[in-house]
Amino acid sequence: MAKIKVTKVKSAINRTQNQKRTLEALGLRKIGQVIEHENTPNIMGMISKVSHLVSVEEA
Prior knowledge:
Layout: E1 3-8, H1 17-26, E2 34-38, H2 41-49, E3 54-58
Antiparallel strand pairs: 1-2, 1-3
């Protein structure tokens, strides 16, 4: 499986509860934090829900 790096670039303040929970499920807590995940359909779906709060690049 390919790996991707997900970086939190914006705050979750004033976001819906679903978006906050999605960020937590991805393992992102602080702005600037980088997490590596497998490039699976589940992860890509979660990223698409919070795409305005994160940046994604190939690992």
